[in-house]
Amino acid sequence: MALAVVRDLRPELRLETSEEVAAFEQDLLAEFVLARASAGVLDDTIRGDVGPVLGLREWFGRPLWEMEAHDLDRYFGRHRRDSASGTKVRQAAAFAVFFEFLEEHGTRPAPMRPPASWSSPRWTR
User: Fold this and answer.
1) Band of the pLDDT at 112, cuts 50, 70, 90?
2) What's the mean pLDDT when you consider all of the chain?
3) More confidently predicted of 36 and 17
4) Which of 80 and 6 is assigned the larger pLDDT?
């Protein structure tokens, strides 16, 4: 996995409307794509990461920074139950890269900033 560091120059965000949340999500996704491209990741790979992330966001119905590990368990256990195992593995890899980006990006809206003990939903063996 390759990510380039992209520093946010905006002050701490306070998102108060659904339009502001949607705009912030769009900015984060654009920054994710830019960071991947800046790290030399091929366009097809980036598309392969973004598609599942958008599908997960649509399924979840809320910003992905609010997601917890049990939500991903529900996604794969119920929503994607009948998907081929290779598809689930590729999606899990795309989610891992995206959640790592969110962690490294560190710009979550102030009212939604998780506690210090928060970590991205990851799969462990």
Assistant:
1) very low
2) 82
3) 36
4) 80
C-alpha 44/C-alpha 108 separation (Å) is 28
| Of 72, 77, 71, 119, the residue nearest 92 (C-alpha) | 72
Tell me, yes or no, if the pTM score tops 0.85: no
Query: For residue 83, what is the DSSP state?
Result: S
Topology classification of domain 18-108: DNA polymerase; domain 1 (1.10.150)
Q: Which residue has the tokens 């097809």?
A: 44
- The domain ranges of the chain are 18-108
d(CA 27, CA 99) in angstroms, rounded, equals: 15
Stretch (H or E) spanning 43:
helix 43-60
The count of other CB atoms within 10 Å of the CB of residue 46 is 19
Residue from 51, 34, 94, 96 nearest 69 by CA: 96
The residue count for the chain: 125
* pLDDT tens by residue, 49-72: 999 999 999 999 999 888 888 999
**110 φ, ψ (degrees, to nearest 5):** -55, -50
- Could you list the beta-strand ranges (E) of 49-117: none
